[in-house]
Amino acid sequence: MQSDPGTCKLRAPLKRSKILHMALMGASDPSGEAEASEEKPFLLRALQIALVVSLYWVTSISMVFLNKYLLDSPSLQLNTPIFVTFYQCLVTTLLCKGLSTLAACCPGAVDFPTLRLDLRVARSILPLSVVFIGMITFNNLCLKYVGVAFYNVGRSLTTVFNVLLSYLLLKQTTSFYALLTCSIIIGGFWLGVDQEEAEGTLSWTGTLFGVLASLCVSLNAIYTKKVLPAVDGSIWRLTFYNNVNACVLFLPLLLLLGELQALCHFAQLGSAHFWGMMTLGGLFGFAIGYVTGLQIKFTSPLTHNVSGTAKACAQTVLAVLYYEETKSFLWWTSNMMVLGGSSAYTWVRGWEMKKVQEDPSSKEDEKSSMGV
User: Fold this and answer.
1) Alpha-carbon distance 76 to 70, whole Å?
2) Please, are residues 259 and 83 in contact by the beta-carbon 8 Å criterion?
3) How far apart are CA 335 and CA 329, in angstroms?
4) Distance from C-alpha of 270 to C-alpha of 261, rounded to nearest angstrom
5) Burial annotation 7-16 (CB, 10 A radius, 16+ → b, else e)
């Protein structure tokens, strides 16, 4: 629970664990925002927010297009999606360790926690790591089989799974208005699938991977909250252990699926361009976690979700233009339903959280209101 801002005069800078907690719970930190706005001129703060949001958009959109190139480019012809995912995890692991070493050598110059591999902690993180592997693997497999334009719709059921799993695992009910927004998302998803099939571009395999990715994203949020105490609430330590575990668990998969053998016969295995693009993909994968936390810190979890929805819309339009695709009115309608439903859910949950913060007694009324 958040502490009352009136109980303390000085506030420490937001820790990443606090940022993640606010992101998962949908709560903002109004006192921190008010302090920041008092300390800095409005123009400077507005410029900082614009730069942070732009950085998030550029990083996220670039990562999607780059991964699409690595996973399904006719010029590359690399059919090893698990290896691409493994390599990105390896890059993230090395970057975390490198930054940790740099912070130890140059204290004050780099702000990064000390990272030492503890097998006990690695084992306690293992259940989350399995879900994490499913999330990043199914995300990449979905992107491999569907177009970038349909990618957002294909993975649009995360919010729906959040509501469902919150009830099944945490026994948390959901308000009628939140359920209504979920029904809009489901309607947009089914309309999008129908329109992709009508245009002859639907991949049922990619759509299934998208649904599984959505499920894993929801499970990842739930398990993250459970295991954060094992890494002292540090998101970077959690990132490090998750990716170390993922690298180890991916190795038998690479052998079983024959991807190592396929790599041996890959024509561009010795190409500097290929390894440069692979490494760049890993850098974007590492950076997205940082810029997400940065955007939440400089704005709020609600604004971050709205920004993510707007980014998805821009990404869809860019993909249609870049790949020179022609889409029907109903196809665009499905996208607007998904984006509109997601935005509406974010607004509803933000309004409900604000109401509970302002009037704690309304929490009991919320539990007894119409819900799942």
Assistant:
1) 7
2) yes
3) 10
4) 15
5) eeeeeeebeb
- The DSSP call for residue 4 is P
Q: What is the per-residue pLDDT across 16-71, written as a single tens digit (0 to 9) for each?
A: 444 444 444 434 444 444 444 445 688 888 888 889 999 999 999 999 999 999 99
Computed over every residue of the chain, the mean pLDDT equals: 84
pLDDT at 356 over 90: no
For residue 110, the cross-strand partners are 107
| 3-state SS assignment for residue 320 | helix
Distance CA 144, CA 10 (A): 49
The answer for residues whose C-beta is within 8 angstroms of residue 270's C-beta and 6 or more apart is: none
The CA distances from residue 161 to 155, 185, 352, in Å, are 11, 11, 19
Whether 252 contacts 60, CB under 8 Å: no
DSSP letter string, 206-241: HHHHHHHHHHHHHHHHHHHHHHGGGGTT-HHHHHHH
Name the amino acid, one letter, at 274: F
Residue pointed to by tokens 């940082």: 290
**CA triple 258-264-265, angle to 5 deg:** 95
Q: In this structure, what are the phi and psi dihedrals at residue 110, rounded to the nearest 5 degrees?
A: -125, 130
Q: Which residue has better confidence, 1 or 126?
A: 126
Q: Where do the domains of the chain lie?
A: 47-356
CB atoms within 10 A of CB 81: 21
Residue where the block lists tokens 């990619």: 206
Q: How far apart are CA 52 and CA 307, in angstroms?
A: 11
Task: Tell me how far CA of residue 244 lies from CA of 139, 161, 310, in angstroms.
Answer: 19, 27, 33
How many other C-beta atoms lie within 10 A of the C-beta of residue 229?
Answer: 10
